[in-house]
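Same chain as my last thread, 629 residues:
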Amino acid sequence: MIYGFFKTAAGSPETSLCDCRKNAESIKKLIDKAIEGGAVLLVLPRLSLTGVGCGDLFRQQRLLLAAEGALIDLAEYTADKDIAVVVGVPLMIGDGVYDCAAVLCNGTVCGVCPSADAPYPFDSWRGGEEKHVFYGFGLENEYDVPVGSGLVFGDPEYELRFCADVGREADSVMPPSLAAAASGANVVCALSDIKEISGAGEALRSAAKERSNRLAAGYIAASCGDGESTTDMVFGGRCIICENGSVLAENAPLERGGSLIFSEIDCRMLISERQKRGFSKLPRKENGFVDIGHIDCADTVLTRKIPRSPFNPDDSADLCRDIMAAQAAALARRVEAARAPGCVIGVSGGLDSTLALIASVKAMERLGRPASCVTAVTMPCFGTTSRTRTNADVICERLGVTYRCVDIKASVDRHFADIGHDPAVRNAVYENAQARERTQVLMDIANGRGDIVVGTGDLSELALGWATYNGDHMSMYGVNGSLPKTLIRDIVGVCADDREKDDPVLSAALRDILATPVSPELLPSDGGSIAQKTEDLVGPYELHDFFIYYFIRFGFEPEKIRHIAEHAFGGEYGSDTISKWLDVFLRRFFAMQFKRSCMPDGPDLTGVSLSPRGGWSMPSDAPSDMWRR
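reply #2:
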């Protein structure tokens, strides 16, 4: 299975001005290299069969006929080769001369896309003629070729659909790829002639990222390079492959002898993204699809980087700071709306409560109120260790919040006596009674002050159902509800970095919290050490967060999630381990929907929310069999 991944290539061949035959031979070598690399789509630069610097020679019949003959020769070279090639060529069509992108596959010219925004000496395509006859110039076979701006090409068997922008079309306000994307094209082939001037690389990178993001598409740009005219300009042969706003591959400019880059574009993911954005509502062009014939797509070997932490793929500190600011803004608004003087939060010395506490302090700052308006409550019980208790003490003191300690051991023991539970039986009753007692304490303290209770539960726990129903599962506002454990770890790490100079004591405590194993601390400690490590029970959070992102955000099937996880975590987790925890994730995710059906309000800060009020909706009794099978 290829799971929607298609290996693509962008190439800049060595060019000989006006020598179409020699250029065709150079392109053939690139085609062979692209096939050897596993590519099923190769994009070449603008006017790559002639070179872009021919000037008024583009009006010479000899050059135009040579270009058309070389194009047919190239097309025939693709016979019995499982690749589609998009090449730049000047063509006579009717009474005009046009700057074109020609699509070659299975031995034929499948279609031609003339530029509607071409510079002199070319004419700009205005439509009209639907077909153009290639006469073959001595070749026996003649065939009609679809001609038009915004055509969509593809093999009907696969999800890959591509279109072409030529030259400065790619930078225009309404490029043909806009209409083509509305008609199903999910990869844009940009045939370019980028001049090697100051800032050219960043301009190309920005444009490619923006286009691919706006169209939820792959974007493959290839520019002319070695061998082009240097009369008044230099061409760098820049190539780039992007997907949905991210750069997958790019080359170094000015490579001698041409260049070729590869990467895999996930067309199935792009289709899912478009479904979320409502692309189906856009007007579609009728009869704009061109069947290029069958391309045998073997299993695509992944070479692109798939980040282990998709919620923060670039490990960006700025992203973490932006999320903290958004958390504070959302919580401040809720405090204002509730007309509450402050908020109450349970602190354990763990990651989640630490971030929620920091967000609460920042919310008070936003409201112009002192940190003391935040009441932090630590509630030690049977499993609380000195390490977590000490860290809770330090961060509360350094942040300047109102700090209370409520020991709940006696209350929980009394509850066990009331219901007839033997404390020696360490079952769900033993654990959940502690969590529910803590929630009761927080709610009652908040009621006494007129405050709201800030929840600490995160996205990872909600997905796995790793929360006590009507215990830590409940609050009046959950600031962490759309943040996975791995991202929370990143945010707390940035907090530690930011505080290192002005408050090294707080920074050290935050770093120790990061180094502390994740635990609910509901079972008695083992000689002072944490006895209950969450990841030993439900699996590594970095795997679960990876599963959550691709299962919720894009709706990937489990087989594909496992496939890309094996690539992303290769060498750290084996296939059997990934399969084991993926099965745990699916089983728990389906079984625990009832907890998510009544979760508290909270801001959606990552685009992946399990809130039943618009983030995620599913029946609580849906079976997981079909996914787990």
